[in-house]
TrEMBL record:
Sections of the chain in a coiled coil: 231-351, 383-503, 625-719, 803-858, 894-928, 966-1020
Organism: Pseudoalteromonas amylolytica
Pfam family, one: AAA_23
Protein name: Rad50/SbcC-type AAA domain-containing protein
Keywords: Coiled coil
GO biological process, one term: double-strand break repair
Keyword Flavoprotein: no
GO function term, MF aspect, one: ATP hydrolysis activity
Length: 1220
């Protein structure tokens, strides 16, 4: 991977920055420096590279939770959007690079605010990738871009930051750290913290399995198991109770069947009395209601002529209504109203003509007034505009005069302030030299302060390490004695464990379990067989009962079938009646009746008299249709009820058949179960039911052996746990002993290194003070510095800042004076122009006012100024419209009166015709009634006109209820007679099935006593059977938990070994093992780079620890401590380690660009020279190396530089320096 160019916009302090590594001087320089003052934005260039490639930076990746308010947006501290420059609406970073495939690519990361305004909300960043050759966009989303770039470069973000941004300063601390600290640093540098997490996971799993094992061992004691004697006795008792229960239930079944036979006989006698009483009651009711029924039948006959009587009443009412309408029409007189309205029409026509002539005469004057109004409005508008322009010009003239006066005063104040600033600068010339070298002095003072603090820290650290080594040495001796005692105890426990294992080998646990299981199964099968026999007896009784009920339902179903047939016949008859009436009342028949005329022959029958040729016949047929339809609906309802009863009885029969079938199937199943039980017993090795006493005795012997096995197994488990615990404690003590010994060695080496570091730091402070004195030689201040360093630096900083402020203020005042002189000249010219413009505007205003006065005079001569032309025209037009509207209204009223008079004549003629037709219809209706009455009196002499009227006065629904009630009683009478006959047959059949001579009370008493005995025996059986089930369940659960314990024991041993070797609460064991291997690999890569930097040294690991030694080839491969290296040598070794980590992280990826961001500020000149020589050697390997620093010696040695310079206003600019 090779970087080609970098482009940044509005990121941190950089507004615009572009670095092109393909342009001179960077194109032919392998080593370049990124220089600039602290805070100028040097590291922002590296942030831009990371943003363009991966969308995040190394500096902002630590804080993941805390948030900060960023210009109105709450975002996390690690959010890269924090790098957007304040006050900017957008920013971006672009990097062009060559991928592993040799192609050029452009990666762009861009951030914007909403609406592209500085106060808009932050949007989500845009991150995309282009191929430069064909300008094709390869990705759309940020995640896809990062994935694609990782493929092209061959590195993820963590690998990139370790391979390209070298962590040389971290390896400087790595060399001086203890073994444990070195493992932690190496874990962070290489990103291999997963081994610590894995060690912690092993520890937690071991802890979890140990807790599960202890909990399961404790739960085994909760299961209580019966002895063999107790179990045999319990099974014998259950067998005896089963036999008693079978005998008692057989007697109970016999008593129940006898009671059922007696109860059924009593029910038959009770039903017989009920049916006889119902038959007597129905016959009495029918006889008492006979007169009412005759009256209702007569009313039903009269319904035939009801439509005739209704038509006669309707015709009489119609005749009275038509007579009243005729009299009211005759009284109305419309001729007088018509004459009056004709006179009003003539007056309205004359007024309309007068208004029209007035509108035409004034039309020219109205047009002239409108023309004058338009001219007056235009002149007024122009006059108002000129007045506004005049006022604006006067206001501008006043403002420019005041501004000229303000500028003159500002010029005076500016000159005075310049004189004051020059006086201050002349009085403090001594501070000028400090200001010119302030960047170097400030960094030097910081370095001296840090070195001083480092010396104090090293002294405190030396004392702490010395005390710690003494404490560890005092702990080591007693710990060694304790380990020897634990080893002896561990051997004794192992001998006890072997003895227990030999005792367990004499017992065959699986064979004992199998014998116990077979014997228990045989006992349970015997109990199930007895229950099976008892249930078969009960099913036999139920099957007999179901068959008897089946016979009874079959008889009821036959009776209901007959009732359904009767209701179907009645429904067909009523349906036929409705059909016949509907045919006679059809539309075609009604049309033929309407054509009949008195005295003319009928086209159907040829008769000249037409008794049905009147209008009221249609309503009569409709009434008949309604009556017959109602009868049909009642017949259908009765049929539906009968069918519903039939369906209910069919369903009941089917349900009974189902119950019978289920009982038969259940009996067959029980028989099959009995066969299977017998077969299972034979498979278990038992031909018949087992002997309970012998079986229980045998089971007791087996349980004793199983109990002995459990006790031995439990003792073995406890002893094994004790052995594991002692082994664990021994391992911990041995590990603690080893750690103490390593710590003592490490502390001894650290004390030597601490002494050397104190000496180096003191020399560095002396050299820095000497150089700083050359740049600022104020002896008085240096005396104050030696007495109070921090206070002296603060005073000098304040003076330098004040002096710089005075210089900047003087430059600003001079620049402001130039601007004020230019502004004063421009303001005087503007004042002269405004005065000339004011004179012209006043003259034009006077001329417009005269023109407006002349137009007002002409307008007043035609129409007052208060009235408009539109008002005058609207007034004349409104008067004309009112007259025309009044004329139209009068004409419409006259037309309506004439139409009303004509309509009156037509209605009178129509009423006369209707009265004649009404009289003719009344005569026909009365003639038909007299004919019907004469016919009916031949059979019903009591009928006359009065009787008919009385019968029709009562609603027919009352008579219909009487008829329906009588019909229902007749039907009930038939049903009761049928039921009574059927009951006699059942009584005869019941007498032939006589079962007992005892009374019902005696049988119930015997059954009650027997049920009490059954309940007592069942309670005892249930109690004993529950005990047996609980015993079997405990045996099964205990065996299952024993199996689970063995399985869990195996798992625990696995995790115990892993925890012993690799696990602990902090993950330290596995981390140190893994980092030892990582360190070996890292040193291999580092030695490859160190050989090119220095031929003298080689890095080596001490044994299998994390301690590092230096092999000095010039001293016959002498092994030295890394703490004996000088400052320059430490830098070379740290740089080699950083390059080694880069090679390790690159994973065989060719890296052509490297950046080193830290580590040069604290180097003395000699060490810095060594470091630069090393960097030159990297350049010779074909790599492009960038060094970020503000050290002046480095900037002098490195010809090619990217200089980041602070500018006024809080931003920085970039300048490329070097030989082209």
């Amino acid at each position: 991977m090779k970087l080609l160019n970098i482009t940044l916009s509005n990121l941190a302090s950089l507004t615009q920055a572009a670095v092109d590594f393909e342009q001179a001087p960077l194109s032919h320089s392998g080593l370049f420096a990124i220089t600039g003052d602290t805070g100028a934005g040097k590291s922002t260039l590296l942030d831009g590279i990371c943003l363009a490639l991966y969308g995040k930076t190394a500096r902002l990746r630590n804080d993941l939770k805390n948030t900060v308010t960023f210009n109105g947006d709450d975002i996390k501290l690690n959010d890269p959007r924090n790098l957007l420059r304040r006050g900017c609406a957008q920013g971006q970073a672009e990097v062009q690079f060559i991928g592993q495939d040799g192609e050029r690519y452009l990666a762009r990361w861009k951030i914007e605010r909403a609406r592209k305004k500085p106060d808009g909300k932050l949007k989500r960043p845009e991150h995309i990738l282009f191929r430069v050759a064909d300008e094709q966009q390869l990705t759309q989303s940020s995640s896809a871009t990062v994935t694609k770039i990782e493929q092209l470069i061959g590195l993820n973000f963590e690998q990139f930051t370790r391979a390209v941004l070298l962590a040389q300063h971290e390896f400087a601390a790595f060399l001086k750290a203890s073994a444990d600290e070195r493992a932690q640093l190496l874990e962070c540098l290489t990103g291999t913290d997963k081994f610590s997490r894995l060690g912690q996971a092993i520890f937690e799993h071991h802890k979890e399995k140990k807790g599960e094992l202890e909990q399961l061992q404790n739960s085994l004691a909760n299961y209580h198991v019966l002895s063999d004697e107790e179990l045999a006795s319990l099974k014998q008792t259950i067998t005896t109770l089963d036999e008693q229960l079978s005998e008692l239930k057989a007697k109970s079944t016999q008593y129940q069947q006898d009671i059922q036979w007696l109860t059924q006989g009593e029910q038959h006698q009770l039903k017989l009395q009920q049916y006889q009483q119902q038959l007597h009651n129905l016959e009495s009711q029918i006889q008492q209601q006979a007169p009412e029924v005759e009256q209702a039948k007569l009313a039903q006959l009269v319904q035939q002529i009801a439509d005739n009587r209704q038509q006669a009443s309707a015709l009489t009412t119609q005749h009275e209504k038509l007579t009243r309408q005729h009299d009211e029409l005759v009284k109305q007189d419309y001729q007088q109203q018509i004459d009056q309205q004709q006179a009003l029409v003539a007056d309205a026509n004359k007024a309309q003509q007068t208004a029209l002539e007035a509108l035409k005469n004034h039309e020219p004057d109205i047009k002239l007034v409108r023309t004058l109004d338009n001219k007056r409005y235009a002149t007024s508008q122009q006059l108002e505009d000129n007045k506004k322009q005049l006022a604006s010009t006067e206001q501008q003239l006043h403002g420019i005069t005041e501004q000229i006066q303000r500028v003159e005063q500002q010029l005076k104040d500016n000159q005075k302030a310049q004189n004051e600033q020059m006086t201050q600068l002349e009085q403090h010339t001594a501070v000028k030299s400090a200001l010119e070298n302030w960047s170097y002095l400030e960094n030097t003072f910081d370095t001296i302060s840090q070195a001083t603090q480092r010396i104090e820290s090293l002294k405190n650290q030396y004392k702490s390490q010395y005390d710690e080594r003494s404490t560890l040495e005092s702990k080591l001796a007693p710990l060694t004695v304790q380990i020897q005692n634990q080893q002896a105890s561990h051997l004794a426990q192992q001998a006890q464990l072997e003895t227990l294992q030999k005792q367990l080998a004499t017992l065959d646990y699986e064979a004992l379990q199998k014998q116990s299981y077979n014997l228990k199964s045989a006992l349970q099968l015997s109990i199930d067989g007895q229950k099976n026999d008892h249930e078969q007896l009960q099913l036999t009784a139920n099957i007999d009962k179901y068959r008897h009920q089946q016979h009874t339902l079959q008889l009821q179903l036959t009776d209901t079938e007959k009732q359904v047939d009767l209701q179907k016949q009645r429904t067909l008859i009523t349906q036929e009646n409705v059909t016949q009436v509907q045919l006679r009342a059809s539309e075609k028949i009604s049309a033929l009746r309407a054509q009949l005329r008195e005295g003319q022959e009928c086209m159907v029958c040829g008769a000249t008299e037409h008794p049905y040729g009147v209008d009221h016949i249609d309503s009569h047929w409709q009434n008949l249709i309604a009556d017959f339809t109602e009868q049909q609906q009642k017949a259908e309802q009765a049929l539906t009820q009968a069918q519903q009863r039939y369906n209910d009885q069919v369903v009941a029969t089917e349900q009974l058949n189902t119950q019978l079938q289920v009982a038969l199937q259940r009996k067959s199943q029980l028989q099959e179960q009995h066969t299977k039980l017998t077969k299972t017993l034979q498979e278990l090795g038992f031909e018949h039911y087992v002997d309970i006493d012998l079986s229980q005795q045998h089971l007791q012997e087996i349980e004793e052996k199983l109990s002995r096995y459990s006790e031995l197994s439990k003792s073995q488990q406890q002893l094994w746990q004790q052995l594991q615990a002692s082994q664990h404690q021994l391992s911990q003590n041995q590990s603690q002993q080893s750690d103490i010994q390593q710590k003592i060695q490490g502390l001894s080496a650290a004390l030597d290194a601490n002494t050397q570091q104190q000496n180096d730091a003191s020399n560095t402070v002396a050299q820095l003070k000497q150089k700083a004195h050359q740049n600022y030689c104020d002896s008085t201040w240096w005396q104050q510095y030696e007495q109070d360093m921090h206070n002296a630096i603060e005073q000098l900083t304040s003076k330098v800042k004040q002096y710089a402020t005075w210089q900047e203020t003087l430059a600003q005042l001079q620049h402001a004076q130039q601007q004020l002189n230019t502004q004063q000249h421009n303001d005087v010219q503007h004042q002269n122009k405004l005065q000339a413009m004011l004179v012209q505007q006043q003259s034009a205003l006077t001329e417009l006012q005269n023109t407006l006065n002349e137009l007002d005079s002409q307008r007043k001569a035609l129409l007052p100024l208060t009235r408009s032309a539109d008002e005058w025209f609207n007034e004349l037009q409104t008067r004309h419209e009112q007259c025309r509207s009044q004329l139209t209204t009068c004409q419409n009223t006259l037309t309506r009166l004439e139409q009303s008079a004509h309509q009156q004549q037509l209605e009178l003629q129509h009423l006369k015709t209707q009265l004649a037709d009404n009289q003719s219809q009344q005569a026909n209706v009365e003639k038909r009634f007299e004919q019907w009455l004469a016919t009916q009196r031949q059979q019903h002499s009591e009928l006359n006109a009065t009787t008919v009227a009385q019968l029709l006065a009562v609603p027919f629904a009352q008579y219909e209820d009487i008829l329906n009630k009588n019909q229902h009683q007749q039907h009930q009478l038939t049903q009761v007679q049928a039921r009574l006959n059927h009951l006699h047959e059942e009584i005869e059949q019941h007498q032939t099935q006589a079962r007992t001579t005892a009374s019902l009370e005696q049988l119930k008493h015997l059954l009650s006593e027997l049920n009490l005995q059954i309940e007592q025996v069942q309670a005892h059986w249930l109690d004993h059977n529950t005990q047996l089930k609980q015993h079997e369940q405990n045996v099964a659960n205990r065996q299952a938990q024993q199996n689970e314990l063995s399985h869990l024991q195996t798992q625990y041993e696995h995790w115990y070994l892993l925890d012993k070797l690799l696990g602990d609460a902090t993950g330290k064991k596995l981390r140190n093992v893994a980092q030892t291997q990582t360190l070996k690999i890292l040193l291999q890569y580092a030695n490859q780079h160190l050989s090119s930097l220095s031929k003298r040294y080689r890095l080596s690991i001490i044994g299998q620890s994390l301690n590092i030694a230096i092999i000095d080839k010039d001293m016959a491969d002498e092994q030295r401590s890394v703490n004996t290296l000088s400052g320059g040598e430490s830098f070379l070794v740290s740089l080699a380690l950083a390059l080694g980590l880069a090679s390790l992280s690159a994973n065989k990826v060719q890296i052509s660009s490297l950046f080193i961001d830290e580590g040069f500020g604290t180097l003395d000149p000699e060490t810095l020279s060594v470091a630069l020589d090393a960097l030159d050697s990297l350049q010779a390997q074909g790599r492009k190396v960038g060094v970020i620093s503000h050290v002046s010696e480095m900037t002098e040695r490195v010809a090619t530089q990217i200089h980041v310079k602070k500018q006024p206003g809080g931003y920085s600019s970039i300048q490329i320096k070097g030989q082209i």
